[in-house]
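pasting for the record
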Amino acid sequence: MLQAAGVGTGDEVIVPAYGNPEVAEAVVQTGAAPVFADIDPDTYCVDPAHVAACVSERTAAVVAVHRFGHRADLQRLKGLTQRHGLFLMEQGESRLPFEEVGRRRAYAAYLNGRLSGLRTPVAGEGHTYQQYVVRVPGNGRPDRDAFARALRSKGVECSVPVKTPVHRMPAFRRDVELPETERAADETLALPLDAELSKRQMQRVVSACNALGGLLQPAF
């Protein structure tokens, strides 16, 4: 898409740093330079306000990535890119069957109502819960990692959705301030949310998480 739009050497493309490096890699393959924008802390998608701050005379395009079942704010991004004459491109997630989305939303509602000590996902409009991503409060990455290890020891599978933001990877390292991106990388944890999970299995997730309240005390 970037090549078809004529993006190339000397251009800049604004992309999110929270996620996989494939978007930045695609930008580099065209000869352009990726410029990393911060994210909205609720949706984990690129923040239109920070995108606006990143626009320069060399900016040619903006890439919006939909994340964890949240949709990027395309309405604001379209307004921004139209004002500046930029291309707006999307990277979507695989579509889930309607029935599976319904089950995932029901499971997410169950977890949201019973988990304590964790920051549960913001149930924005159209959220499909591709992943159920929570925030572990405390000292960031050390506490999040300790919480994850404790959950796994109790037989609850969990994963860190983004271990290293793209702007911190050696191939793309940039000296930019992206506080929400870095905070999300340090605090986020994906809990199991398979459409086939039984209620008993969901109860096990809740019990294991809530039993670890001692790990969730904020630092003073």
